């Protein structure tokens, strides 16, 4: 992969983040990185600013809410950081770790600490829910105000604003991350047992996507919602969700096959191109249609950490990335 | 490749002295930084930078060939701690008084991310010399904690008589013949007696268990005068009472010579899968036919970890030994199965 016409490595500007990168996001035009040393780094090239969002603690989870970054720490605190450098505490879970966090553009946020789930609407009203066991993943359903919650032995869908009983979807095992297909038809979870599980929401029909050599901890939906790119193998595994039965009885596509595990994936916001990050720090862009690859990053030294965070800006002109060892960078896409 | 973070599991009944030991470890001026994972946030009374509350949540993990109970919360916590690498050199996991150590240990063998980041160093059990004998009679958890241990601190030894101490030590040995046993007051032992033990390191299996070499005594007990009427019976030998616990045993076997790996490996795998729930821990050093390197393994229930290690030294006798500790072990079945593997 050293052919210069298929390499964008010289369009990457490195950023020395200095600590494990937990999350990445563009706050409007400002690149932001959430770090394991408790800082949020606003990383505009030449105009860096560090905010100590979680003093003496680490950021475990981060999510973008519009043009703010919400961070959850091992200090039990939730803060909201703006591109203007503002940093406001919005919740405190008495020191218990924030294990999961999700947010959306209208400013709705949900988080979990142990079994306790909180949903906070844009006006700041907080509703509470106790899951049957420790919560590892959260996702908003695409329509309305409804939260999908992943825990042991299944998932629960909860309407924070109604008294309706939550709806449960059962499957034995430890469910970690959770996501909904953009059309709301399917729930997908990643499992401790190196597999994805899913349910068709309408009839709770189970589906399993197995064969992964490792856990899937990163996934991304294509812009039109027809594909789910996933990590956890030596290639990016992409599942089709367009048909009536979704991925059931369908073979996935593979791209970016290398001798390293895929640790992070992110679909371009406007094209069927996937940014793929590996556990050795490499980054490729792959086109889904023909699996064509472009090299973005190939660190030469042994100690280069896994890619741990990706974010495309709204137009897909820049890709922000971060690694476990504190290196980060921004790729500027060519015209 | 970064060094794996060592993890010490601290177990034992409430009041035995776990907190005393924990505080000693954290307050000694050794320069090491610890992340401590505890069950109850408030009760600990320790001052340490990184203290994490765990809820001891377990789930059944089934990945086809292995079905075991795993501490899901520990996987989550270790993943989180690794985002703060550099803030600690080692991890101590304290379990509640009634906890079964097996799920904790198993967690370190079933998750790839945990295995990449951390290694289980030792299970340290703190026991109360005054109360242990009674607990061994009425609490299976106490037996598990003793059977599972690599290091046992028989604490509050100043509160019992010599005779009582000898008695409880003999009961411990009936269950666990190879843990390193220290009789302590206020858990006062040098820290290297409990930290940096490498007890799960295949390289160190022989070094830390001199008793393991002397299987002759125990081997004899396996044959003669065993009338199992469901109660303890004791023999005198070498001035030390030998107890046989009615439901927790150790079985130590040896073959003077090589075993055939084509028979041994399938047997050990199948036997631990079948009898996994009864076998708390297993260890072995084997001479494989036509193999100059020693084969070393250790296991927790049905999870086995084995590898070829160093060459047999010219002055070393090629002998094959295995030890099982567990509940209601079928000694005859184990012996027959192992002996059939002789080369």
**Fraction of residues of chain A in helices?**
under 10%
User: How many domains of chain B, as an integer?
Assistant: 2
Within the CATH hierarchy, at the fold level, what is the topology of the largest domain in chain B?
Rossmann fold
Overall pLDDT score of chain B:
84
**Count of domains of chain A:** 3
What's the number of extended β-strand segments of chain B? Answer: 16
- What proportion of the residues of chain A form beta strands (DSSP E)? over 45%
What is the spatial order of strands in the main beta sheet of chain A?
14-15-16-17-18-19
Mean pLDDT of chain A, nearest integer? 95
Number of strands of chain A: 30
Largest sheet of chain A: 6 strands, antiparallel
The CATH superfamily of the largest domain in chain B bears the name: P-loop containing nucleotide triphosphate hydrolases
**CATH C-level label of the largest domain in chain B:** Alpha Beta
Order of helices and strands of chain A: EEEEEEEEEEEEEEEEEEEEEEEEEEEEEE
The CATH architecture of the largest domain in chain A can be named as: 7 Propeller
């Amino acid at each position: 992969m050293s052919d210069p016409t298929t390499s964008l490595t010289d369009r990457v500007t490195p950023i020395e983040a200095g600590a494990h990168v937990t999350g990445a996001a563009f706050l409007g035009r400002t690149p932001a990185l959430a770090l394991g040393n408790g800082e949020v780094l606003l990383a505009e090239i030449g105009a860096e600013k560090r905010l100590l969002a979680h003093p003496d603690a680490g950021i475990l989870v981060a999510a973008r809410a519009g043009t703010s970054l919400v961070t959850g720490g091992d200090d039990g605190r939730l803060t909201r950081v703006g591109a203007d450098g503002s940093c406001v505490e919005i919740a405190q879970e008495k020191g218990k770790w924030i294990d999961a966090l999700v947010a959306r553009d209208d400013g709705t946020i949900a988080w979990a600490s142990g079994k306790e789930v909180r949903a906070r609407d844009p006006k700041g009203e907080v509703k509470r829910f106790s899951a049957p066991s420790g919560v590892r993943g959260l996702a908003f359903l695409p329509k309305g105000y409804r939260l999908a919650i992943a825990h042991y032995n299944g998932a629960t869908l909860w309407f924070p604003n109604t008294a309706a009983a939550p709806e449960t979807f059962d499957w034995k095992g430890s469910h970690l991350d959770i996501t909904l297909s953009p059309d709301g038809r399917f729930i997908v979870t990643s499992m401790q047992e190196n597999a994805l599980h899913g349910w068709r929401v309408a009839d709770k029909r189970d589906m399993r996507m197995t064969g992964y050599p490792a856990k899937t901890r990163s996934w991304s939906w294509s812009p039109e919602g027809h594909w789910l790119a996933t990590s956890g193998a030596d290639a990016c595994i992409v599942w089709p969700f367009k048909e009536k039965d979704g991925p059931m009885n369908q073979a996935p596509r593979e791209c970016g096959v290398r001798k390293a595990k895929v640790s992070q994936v992110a679909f371009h916001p406007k094209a069927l191109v996937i940014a793929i990050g590996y556990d050795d720090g490499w980054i490729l862009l792959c086109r889904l249609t023909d699996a064509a690859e472009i090299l973005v990053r190939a660190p030469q030294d042994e100690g280069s950490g896994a890619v741990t965070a990706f974010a495309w800006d709204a137009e897909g002109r820049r890709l922000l990335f971060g690694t476990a060892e504190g290196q980060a960078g921004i790729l500027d896409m060519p015209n | 490749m970064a060094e794996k973070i060592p993890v010490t599991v601290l177990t034992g009944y409430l009041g035995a002295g776990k907190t005393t030991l924990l505080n000693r470890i954290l307050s000694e001026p050794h320069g090491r930084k610890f992340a401590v994972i505890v069950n109850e946030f408030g009760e600990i009374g320790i001052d340490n930078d990184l203290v994490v509350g765990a809820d001891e949540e377990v789930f059944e993990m089934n990945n086809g060939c292995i079905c075991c109970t795993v501490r899901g919360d520990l996987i989550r916590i270790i993943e989180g701690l690794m985002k703060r690498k550099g803030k600690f050199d080692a991890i101590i996991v304290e379990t509640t008084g009634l906890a079964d150590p097996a799920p904790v240990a198993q967690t370190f063998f079933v998750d790839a991310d945990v295995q990449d980041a951390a290694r289980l160093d030792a299970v340290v059990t703190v026991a109360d010399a005054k109360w242990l004998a009674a607990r061994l009679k009425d609490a299976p958890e106490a037996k598990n904690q003793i059977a599972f241990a690599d290091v046992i601190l028989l604490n509050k030894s100043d509160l019992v008589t010599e005779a009582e101490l000898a008695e409880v030590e003999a009961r411990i040995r009936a269950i666990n013949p190879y843990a390193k046993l220290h009789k302590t007051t206020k858990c006062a032992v040098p820290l290297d007696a409990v930290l940096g033990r490498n007890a799960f390191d295949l390289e160190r299996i022989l070094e830390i268990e001199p008793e393991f070499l002397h299987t002759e005594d125990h081997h004899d007990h396996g044959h003669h005068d065993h009338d199992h009427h469901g109660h303890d019976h004791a023999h005198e030998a070498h001035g030390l009472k030998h107890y046989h616990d009615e439901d927790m045993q150790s079985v130590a076997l040896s073959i003077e010579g090589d075993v055939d790996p084509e028979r041994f490996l399938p047997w050990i795998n199948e036997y631990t899968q079948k009898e996994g729930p009864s076998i708390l821990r297993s260890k072995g050093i084997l001479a494989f036919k036509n193999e100059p390197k020693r084969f070393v393994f250790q296991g927790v229930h049905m999870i086995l970890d084995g590898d070829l290690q160093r060459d047999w030294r010219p002055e070393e006798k090629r002998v094959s030994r295995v030890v099982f500790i567990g509940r209601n072990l079928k000694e005859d079945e184990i012996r027959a199965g192992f002996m059939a593997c002789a080369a």
